[in-house]
Amino acid sequence: MIDIVQFPVDMKDPLVSHLGFNTFLLARDLRIVYGGSDELKNMRMLNNPSVDIFFVPHALSRRDHLHWRSSGVDETMIKLAKKHSIAIGFRFDLILQVDGVQRAQLLGRIMQTIRLCHKYNVRMVLCSFATDVYGLRNASDLQGLGRLLGMTPLEAKQAISFTRKHLGVRFL
Predict the structure, then answer these.
(1) Which pTM does this prediction carry?
(2) Mind listing the pLDDT tens digit for each residue in 108-129?
C-alpha cells in the first residue's frame, strides 16, 4: 500500500509505522496535474500521455443542476483519461478542509466521478496528500472511504496500491 504525500516521511517514526503503508511517494516525484474550472484546459491536460494522475476539480463554487452534479469531469474527459492511461485522483485532505453542506456537496461530486470512472474502467487514486505527519490516515481508513464513496472493494484496494514505473505510474 502506497500513499502520496507532500513531505518526506520517515518510516521509523512511531506515528507513521502503524498506518499500514509500505511506502510513501512524494507528490513532486509524480507527474500530477490539477484540474481547474476551464474545461478546455482540463481536456488539454488529459490529452498529454505523460501525465500520471489528474486530480479532479470538485469546485464548490459551481452550482449543481437538477439531475446531475457539476463534478468537474464529464464522459469525454474520462474517456481521454482511459485512452492515455491517466488515473483520476481524489485527495482526502480536501474533504477534511470543508464541513457541513459543502462537504456533502463535495462527497456527492466525488461519488459521481467514481461512478463515471467505474463505468469506463478508469483507474482511481485515493491518497491523503498530507502536508505533515498529523494529516496522514490509516490505509484501511482510506480504503473504507473509497468503498463508502462507491468503489468496489478491489477498486478501493487498487486506489491506494500502485507502483511507480520508470516513466510513470503502473497500476496493479
Answers:
(1) 0.86
(2) 889 989 999 999 999 999 999 9
